[in-house]
Amino acid sequence: MAAWKEATCGGRPLLSKRVIVCLDVKDGRTTKGIRFKDNVDVGDPVDMARKYYEEGVDELVFYDITASSERRKIRIDTVRRVAEQVFIPFSVGGGISTVAEMREVLLAGAEKVSVNSAAVRNPDIITGGASLYGTQCIVLGMDVAKEDGMPCGYGVVIDGGRTRTGLDALQWAQKAEKLGAGEIVLNSIDADGTQDGYELTVTGLISRGVGIPVVASGGAGSPAHVLAVLRDAAADAALVASIVHSGAWSVPRIKAYLEENGIPVRKTY
């Protein structure tokens, strides 16, 4: 059984920052693209989940990336097979549009349910899910892009990057928190898959504008990028995909870099 060692300061524990791996799944296979386009197959999600779990990743996120745009339910069989391989927090999203579907995903092994497009169309799903399962289970997935005319400069996009909503990103994040969301996964479409670094401006706006944890997503290309979004943009966690899927970096090496640079992380022994 693995044990966790927490960093301390003056005998008091510091809050550890989380490194989270994202599995974007299409037709039962993990895929990766750039700015939600030109996706390529990168492997079997079940095998990949097991690998990252054994490497000591803090959490896994699973997205059925075409469920919403295809107006279908999430592929629950794949969710169940991934859940059987990991014993860490596991968040699942894609095509979840009712509280009943949330329950199905939780019963399949997820600890958290992520809603994105469905929450924009029906914000009450956040409140309904939080009332039944607790705010800690309800994650708001937000895909955002630079958009002129928005008060914060960024707008919310749904349906896998296909539909602009007219919602200001910061205002929507604050509303979702009031409705009962317990966490936000903020993905920058402009940075997604580029490996040029996270979008620090919008991440900082959201992280400092809400009172719930914010997970930064989109653009990680090196541990230095992860460090920057956790330290400079105040994100509570960083989601990575391309850099670990490609083998360029591993979860342990990313965590070691963060620790060397003063960011407390959880370590397994």
Describe the structure.
The chain has one domain (18-268): Aldolase class I (TIM Barrel). The chain has ten helices and 16 strands. The chain has helices spanning 45-55, 76-83, 99-107, 117-121, 124-133, 169-179, 200-209, 223-231, 242-245, 251-260, and strands at 4-5, 8-9, 12-13, 18-26, 29-34, 37-43, 59-64, 90-93, 112-115, 138-146, 154-158, 163-168, 183-188, 214-217, 237-240, 267-268. It has an eight-stranded parallel β-barrel with strand order 4-7-8-9-10-13-14-15, surrounded by seven helices. A two-stranded antiparallel ribbon has the order 1-16. Strand 5 (29-34) and strand 6 (37-43) form a beta hairpin.
Helix content: 25-40%
Work out the helix count. 10
Poorly predicted sequence stretches spanning 5 or more consecutive residues: 1-13
Task: Tell how many strands the DSSP assignment holds.
Answer: 16
Q: From the 3D coordinates, which CATH architecture would you assign?
A: Alpha-Beta Barrel
| Cα-atom radius of gyration | 17 Å
Order of helices and strands: EEEEEEHEHEHEHHEEEHEHEHEHHE
Q: Please state how the strands of the largest beta sheet are arranged side by side.
A: 4-7-8-9-10-13-14-15
What top-tier CATH class fits best?
Alpha Beta
Number of domains: 1
- State the separation between the terminal residues, measured CA to CA: 9 Å
